[in-house]
Structures are given as structure tokens and as C-alpha cells.
UniProtKB/TrEMBL annotation:
<dbReference type="InterPro" id="IPR006201">
    <property type="entry name" value="Neur_channel"/>
</dbReference>
<feature type="domain" description="Neurotransmitter-gated ion-channel ligand-binding">
    <location>
        <begin position="87"/>
        <end position="226"/>
    </location>
</feature>
<dbReference type="InterPro" id="IPR006029">
    <property type="entry name" value="Neurotrans-gated_channel_TM"/>
</dbReference>
<feature type="region of interest" description="Disordered">
    <location>
        <begin position="344"/>
        <end position="370"/>
    </location>
</feature>
<feature type="transmembrane region" description="Helical">
    <location>
        <begin position="243"/>
        <end position="263"/>
    </location>
</feature>
<dbReference type="GO" id="GO:0016020">
    <property type="term" value="C:membrane"/>
</dbReference>
<dbReference type="InterPro" id="IPR018000">
    <property type="entry name" value="Neurotransmitter_ion_chnl_CS"/>
</dbReference>
<keyword id="KW-0812">Transmembrane</keyword>
<dbReference type="Pfam" id="PF02931">
    <property type="entry name" value="Neur_chan_LBD"/>
</dbReference>
<feature type="transmembrane region" description="Helical">
    <location>
        <begin position="302"/>
        <end position="326"/>
    </location>
</feature>
<feature type="compositionally biased region" description="Basic and acidic residues">
    <location>
        <begin position="349"/>
        <end position="370"/>
    </location>
</feature>
<feature type="transmembrane region" description="Helical">
    <location>
        <begin position="270"/>
        <end position="290"/>
    </location>
</feature>
<keyword id="KW-0472">Membrane</keyword>
<dbReference type="InterPro" id="IPR006202">
    <property type="entry name" value="Neur_chan_lig-bd"/>
</dbReference>
<dbReference type="InterPro" id="IPR038050">
    <property type="entry name" value="Neuro_actylchol_rec"/>
</dbReference>
<dbReference type="Pfam" id="PF02932">
    <property type="entry name" value="Neur_chan_memb"/>
</dbReference>
<feature type="domain" description="Neurotransmitter-gated ion-channel transmembrane">
    <location>
        <begin position="246"/>
        <end position="358"/>
    </location>
</feature>
Amino acid sequence: MYTAINAWKEEQNECTRYYDISNYNGCIPKPITKGEKAATHRQALSQTTWENFTTSSTKELLGSLLDTYSLYQIPRNGSDPLLVTITVSVSNVLNVSWYNKQLAWDETDFPFSSITVPWDSVWTPSHSVREAFEVEWTTASPDVVLHSDGKVEFQLSLRIDSNCNFDLFYFPRDKAHCTLSFFFMDNTVNELEFKVSTKNEILNVKREYLVTGVNATSQWDTLQVQPLFVVMIDLENTGIRTILSLIVPSIALMIADLCGFLLPLKDRPSYMVTLLLAYLVFHASLVGSLPGASSCNPLLSYYYIGLLVLLFLSTIETILVTKLVADNHDRQLKHIFRGATATTTSAKNESDRPEDKNSRMNDYGTEKEESNLNQVPATLDRLSFFIFLGLVVIFHLLFAGLWLLWKCESEKPPGEGHLDGIKNRQGW
């Protein structure tokens, strides 16, 4: 029994020493050869040595770099201001880089071309966005990359909710010019300057607004000593959804109203009233779908009101013509009744030939008068159709002229120049 137990212990020791225990399954070890065992031992030894060397070298490098380094002091570049290069990606990413000679090292002493440190361990420019309501960091603690030549760079991912002035007068083909002003309160223009570039990384696919241009400038004036740079983004509304869902149905409804004049007059009033009621319901949704504006309402809202007035006029015209035809029909019935009475009277006096001749002449005059009465409603109906068609054409030509020529300026506070709702300083 003792011999069996000792043999089992020796087997477990051999399993631990000469077997791949990472693949251990129950009490059945996976054997490896002596050559594989030696290679595994050499690899583990080399990895351990490199990791120890890397850890110690990194600590030594960071210790030498940050020994006399001040986190709260801007890196000095002699008498010249520190040049910070910023690439603004319209995917809400700021690629920021600058050179700090205090954080440079010799690669012969420390075999690293770059290392990564937490952003709060070195100085980084702190900025604010003037037009922003809220700025949210997508990454709470971004890493900073230090290069051996002293270059410091990091990517700052932001989500910015800002104030932007949209010119909705030409909705749904409106354009917007949004401005983001990044300024730095901790430093002056003598200490810090920017070299700003932009890059549009937003794919204009399945978006209501397209980014048509991105520009950035570094600017300041004599009244503002803090450095800043301004990013200007140009947006353009595609308008496809609005055109297909709102404008096309309105034009189709107007064409249907014009085609209603081809119907018989007795069926036309119900048709016109149905179109008018349908457009009243549709108009409520149209007005609700349009964006609101304080001083420059969308020109499209006036177009919808004009269509409503035209439909109302066509309905009123149809009702008036129908009333005239009904009155004319009553007059015809009276003339027919009078003709029948005259015929009965002449039959009783057959012996009087001259009166019979006068009776036939009266009947001929009555038929001619009835024909004239029948032509009056038809002539008036055709005349009203051409008048209505002319009004439709004039209205659309007038609307096209207003769209091309009329410029609406948003109201601004008196005595002040403003940009996107923010006071515009001199020199911007």
C-alpha cells in the first residue's frame, strides 16, 4: 500500500514537471517529449526576462521623464508659443499633438520609440466649446502617446450638443452653417497657438442632412487674449423625404382638382367638396410636419395655404355654376309650361288661321330663347375653368419667383452682431 501511494505521488510530480499541465484533464496528463519540454522552458525563460526588462525599463524611463516634470505647467519652447497641431474629424474626434522636449529620450538608453501613459499624468490643453450646450467625453480617460522625439499626441473623442442657426426659409432645400469655437482659458496667445486641419469622416448615406464642407481657422482679436480656433461646418438638407411625402401629394391633389372640371356638372359639387375636405385633413398634418421659425417661416407653408385657397375657389365656382344651371332649368320649365298652354289655346281656335300662324312664330321664339338659356351655364363654366387655370399658373410662377429672389434675414438683437445666437466679436 505504501509503495503504491509513493508511486502515485511520483507520477503526479512527473506530471507537474514533465507534462503540459495546461491541458490537464482529470488524472490523465498529456505527455510531451523532452525536446518540447526544453523548448517550452527556454521560451518561458526568455519571455520572463523580456517582461522583467520591459517593466523595469519603462519604470526607469518614466521616472527620468517625470522626475522634474510639472503636470500643471505648459511646456515651454523658448520665447515662442507652444504649437499644438489639431486635426478635427467630423466624426467627433480631435487628434491633438505637440512637442515637449522634457518628455524626449534617447532610444539607445531606452529601446522604445513610444510609450502610452494616462492623460492625467502629463499636461494636456484644456478647452471649452462656446456654442455647446453639453460636451460629453466618449472615452472617460483617453491615453496619451509619448514619442522619443518629444512628440505628444492623443485622440479626444467628444459628443457635442451645440447651438446652430438653420435657415429654414427654403425648407426642404435649406442650408446651415454651424460654428464651433474651441477656446482655452488656462493659457494666453503668447503661450499657445494652433495649427488646425479638418477631415470629414461622415458618410453621406441615408442622412437627412449632408455635410458639404468643413473649414477651420485659428483666430483671435485684441480684446480676447485666450487662444481659440473655429470649426465651420456646412450642412445641406437633401429634402427627398419631404418632397415625396408632402409636396408630391399636394401637387397631385391640385391636378385632381383641375381634372374635376371634366366631370358632368351634376357630379362635380360632391367631387370638389370631397377634395376640399381631404385637403383640410391633409393640411393639418402638413403644417405639423414643417419646422417652426421665429421670423422666417418656411416658404413652403405659404405654398400650402395658397393651394388651400385655390381648392376653396374651385369649390365655390362649382357651387355657383350649379346654382345658375338649376335656376336656368326652372326658367326652361316655365317656358315649356307657357308653350304648352299656348298650344292648347290655339287648338280650341282652329278656325282662326292668322292666330295659328302667330302661335307657331311664338313657339319658334320660345325654342330659340331656351337654346340661349342652355348656352349661358356652359359658357360660364368654360370661362371659370380658364380663369381658375390661369390662377393656378400665376400662383406657381409667383411662388417660383419668391423662392429664387426673396431673401429672408433673421431678426437679431439691435446693436449687436451675432453668430449662431452667440455674440460675434470683432475680427471673426
